[in-house]
Amino acid sequence: MNSWWQEVAETLQSEFSDIADASQLTRVTLRLVIAAVLGGILGMQREHSGKAAGARTHMLVAMGSALFVLAPRMAGVDDASLSRVIQGIVAGIGFLCAGTILKRPSPSHVKGLTTAAGLWMTAAIGIAAGMGREATAVLSTLLALGILALVPHVAKRLGPAKQHPQKQPDPQEP
Questions:
Q1: pLDDT bucket at 5, cuts 50 / 70 / 90
Q2: Tell me: the pLDDT tens digits for 106-155?
Q3: What gap in Å lies between CA 131 and CA 111, rounded to an integer?
Q4: Structural domain includes residue 88
Q5: pLDDT (tens digit, 9 = 90+) per residue, 43-89?
Q6: Strand partners, 104
Q7: Which residues are CB-neighbours of 159 under 8 A, at least 6 positions away?
Q8: Angle between the N-to-C axes of helices 134-158 and 113-130, in degrees from 0 to 180, rounded to the nearest 10
Q9: What is the pTM of this model?
Q10: H-type helices in 78-131, by residue range?
């Protein structure tokens, strides 16, 4: 019976051996925390603006994207395979973003495009953090935050946007 418990202990040890030393633990933790914090910053701005996709959503998207590139990189995946992983993240986040976009028929109005673009950007920031490009991730977050927070104020100062003429229904369309 003693050898059975020893075998269980050895199996558990081998299963949790993907982080070999303190340096690697620090690196993994730092990359995931940076991704979550940067995603949270963008998410808090969206939450403060009254948007549905807030801090938690953005944090999870950034951290998930970071983990999707971090784990294969740690496993020794080559650049071509990592490129396919990133393509999968971009395609997958597209489905999440598509769910945030609503088109209202009357008046013709599309809602949620900025939220979708913000989630897409958050995924890219998470990828950068996960790949160890922390400075690029921070800079991208600051630029995105500037766009989300400042551009609406600039647009208001420039005056009202031109209204597009409403499309009249075609009587011959079913």
A1: very high
A2: 666 777 888 889 999 999 999 999 999 999 999 999 999 999 999 888 88
A3: 32
A4: yes
A5: 999 999 888 788 999 999 999 999 999 999 999 999 999 999 999 99
A6: 109
A7: none
A8: 160
A9: 0.81
A10: 79-98, 113-130
Count of structural domains, the chain: 1
107 prior amide bond cis, ω within 30:
yes
First CA to last CA distance, the chain:
76
Task: Please determine, for residue 166, whether its predicted confidence score (pLDDT) is greater than 60.
Answer: no
Q: Does the residue 15 lie in any domain?
A: no
Q: Is residue 142 part of a domain?
A: yes
pLDDT given at position 111? 78
127 in any annotated domain: yes
Q: Long-range contacts made by residues 47-51, C-beta under 8 angstroms, separation at least 24?
A: 49/148, 51/114, 51/115
- Phi, psi dihedral angles at 91 (to 5 degrees): -65, -45
